[in-house]
């Protein structure tokens, strides 16, 4: 018994050490993940832009979910404040608002000639929010004023009978194309820069949209561009991880394969 006990001791010790190493490794992974999720202070030169982005996100959420009774949430939400049937989703919205805000900053700073193509499905709330924030929406639709009453009308009309679609539609100020079918954003982007050497097209591609045949083929269109006579296309893959009802393929492959 003594001999067996002694010979088993190293085994138990090794097993305990292995458990300790596994626990330590898991602890380090959790700590690393927590550190990566820590909020980094916004630099001073971007604080106004950060507030602008947050405001546009609020306008987007309001369009998707709220009626016209409580646009600024001056009281607690009630069931009657929320739209009875939601069409559209928030998935692509904050990313598109983020891209749009920062591209506007670059356009102003560097006097760029640039257009923005919104590829992800149901991206209407982001673009409408941006156009409303910059004042253009109220110029075209004076009844959508830049105050609480106008905001209430803006919210209710989105994806609502007699209102506007959940996609960027022709009635959206500045919209040049209304799709409704995913997969053609990148081909439009490459076509837009032909014979326009001073034009930059920022094309946001949804990761769900990227699974369509037309989009997958469009990546080859760069072979038709001539740097001397044509402009530049800046494809931006919005990898938010999900389609409308399940995860996306591009979000599930290793980073190295994606790159």
Key phrases:
about 260 residues, 3 strands, 9 helices, 3-stranded parallel β-sheet, mainly alpha
The count of helical stretches stands at 9
Share in β-strands: 5-15%
> Largest sheet, described in full?
3 strands, parallel
User: Could you list the spans in which at least 5 consecutive residues all have pLDDT below 50?
Assistant: 1-12
* Terminal CA distance: 60 Å
Strand order of the largest sheet: 1-2-3
Assign an overall shape.
globular
Whole-number radius of gyration?
25 Å
Q: What is the mean pLDDT?
A: 85
Structural class: mainly alpha
List the helices and strands and how they pair.
Layout: H1 2-36, H2 47-65, H3 93-110, E1 114-118, H4 124-133, H5 136-140, H6 148-157, H7 185-193, E2 200-206, H8 213-218, E3 232-238, H9 255-258
Parallel strand pairs: 1-2, 2-3
Helix pairs in contact: 2-3, 2-4, 2-6, 3-4
What's this, in brief?
With 259 residues, the protein is mainly alpha-helical. Helices cover 45% and strands 7% of the residues.
Polypeptide structure, described:
- The chain is mainly α.
- It contains nine helices and three strands.
- A three-stranded parallel sheet has the order 1-2-3, sandwiched between helices.
- Helix 2 (47-65) runs antiparallel to helix 3 and helix 2 packs across helix 6.
- The radius of gyration is 25 Å and the shape is globular.
- The chain starts with a helix and ends with a helix.
- Mean pLDDT is 85; it is low at 1-12.
């Amino acid at each position: 018994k003594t001999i067996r006990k002694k010979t088993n001791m190293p085994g138990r010790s090794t097993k305990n050490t292995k458990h300790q190493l596994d626990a330590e490794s898991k602890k380090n992974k959790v700590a690393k993940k927590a550190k990566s999720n820590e909020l980094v202070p916004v630099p001073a030169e971007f604080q106004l832009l950060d507030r602008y982005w947050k405001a546009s996100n609020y306008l987007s959420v309001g369009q998707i979910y709220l009626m016209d009774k409580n646009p600024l949430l001056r009281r607690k939400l009630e069931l009657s404040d929320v739209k009875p049937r939601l069409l559209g989703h928030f998935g692509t919205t904050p990313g598109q608002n983020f891209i749009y805000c920062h591209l506007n900053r670059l356009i102003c700073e560097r006097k760029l000639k640039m257009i923005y193509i919104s590829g992800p499905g149901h991206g209407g709330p982001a673009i409408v929010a941006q156009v409303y924030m910059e004042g253009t929406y109220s110029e075209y639709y004076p009844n959508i004023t830049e105050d609480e009453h106008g905001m209430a009308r803006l919210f209710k009309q989105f994806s609502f009978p007699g209102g506007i679609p959940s996609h960027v539609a022709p009635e959206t100020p500045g919209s040049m194309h209304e799709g409704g079918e995913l997969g053609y954003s990148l081909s439009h982007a490459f076509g837009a820069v032909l014979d326009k050497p001073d034009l930059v097209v920022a094309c946001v591609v949804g990761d769900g949209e990227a699974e369509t045949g037309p989009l997958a083929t469009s990546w080859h269109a760069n072979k038709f561009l001539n740097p001397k006579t044509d402009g530049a296309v800046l494809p931006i893959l919005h990898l938010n991880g999900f389609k409308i009802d399940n995860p996306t393929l591009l979000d599930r492959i290793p980073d190295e394969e994606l790159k």
